[in-house]
């Protein structure tokens, strides 16, 4: 075989072995790398084992490409299996989290119902009146504190307004005094 055709033959073999396929980063990358690496290693082995003829190099490249492609394909398959297993684990974890949240919500609802049931078993009419009186007392205290707070806020606003008026009057007074003394 003519040596100038060897690169063309090797390129043709790589195209045939890779199936003339372009791949994305998630495609058959391992298979393609295996084919190319195997073809190169096979060509080197064919050169070293045989008499160095082009036929031995091409045969080594073909055999190496096939073996490398098979090994790379197994690598790709294993990577896909690992990715699928990880996706399954993630899905199961999310399902467990949702189930746990639902269980916690159910527990809270049951505890609230249990507290209500316990009160219902022992509460008397006088207990109800006492609770209502306490609620009214706390609400009245809140209303008084809210009113006092609002009044203090209004006083603070009035003080700030007076301070602003004082500052404006002082500025105008200083300006007037400066004019009277002839500084302008």
| Proportion of residues in β-strands | under 5%
User: Which structural class best describes the helix and strand composition?
Assistant: mainly alpha
Mean residue pLDDT: 86
The percent range for helix content is over 70%
List the helices and strands and how they pair.
Elements (H helix, E strand, L loop, with lengths): L5 H13 L10 H21 L4 H69 L2 H56 L4
Main attributes?
single chain; 184 residues; mainly alpha; 2 domains; 4 helices; 0% strand; elongated
Architecture overview:
There is one protein chain. The chain is elongated. The chain folds into two domains: 3-105; 132-180. The longest helix is centred in the middle third of the chain and has 69 residues, at 54-122. The model is unreliable at 20-24 (pLDDT under 50). By secondary structure, it is mostly helical. It contains four helices and no strands.
Q: What is this structure, in a nutshell?
A:
This protein has four helices and no strands. With 184 residues, it is mostly helical. Helix 1 packs antiparallel against helix 2.
């Amino acid at each position: 075989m003519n040596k100038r055709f060897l690169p063309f033959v090797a390129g043709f073999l790589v195209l045939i072995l890779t199936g003339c396929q372009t791949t994305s980063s998630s495609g058959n990358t391992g298979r393609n790398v295996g084919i190319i690496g195997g073809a190169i290693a096979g060509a080197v082995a064919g050169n070293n084992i045989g008499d160095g003829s082009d036929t031995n190099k091409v045969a080594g490249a073909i055999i190496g490409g096939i073996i490398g492609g098979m090994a790379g394909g197994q690598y790709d398959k294993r990577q896909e299996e690992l990715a699928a297993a990880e996706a399954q684990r993630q899905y199961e974890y999310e399902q467990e989290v949702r189930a746990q949240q639902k269980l916690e919500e159910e527990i809270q609802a049951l505890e609230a119902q249990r507290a209500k049931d316990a009160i219902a078993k022992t509460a008397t009419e006088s207990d109800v009146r006492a609770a209502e009186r306490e609620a009214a007392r706390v609400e009245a205290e809140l209303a008084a504190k809210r009113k006092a707070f609002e009044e203090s806020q209004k006083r603070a606003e009035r003080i700030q307004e007076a301070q602003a008026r004082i500052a404006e009057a002082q500025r105008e007074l200083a300006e007037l005094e400066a004019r009277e003394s002839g500084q302008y």
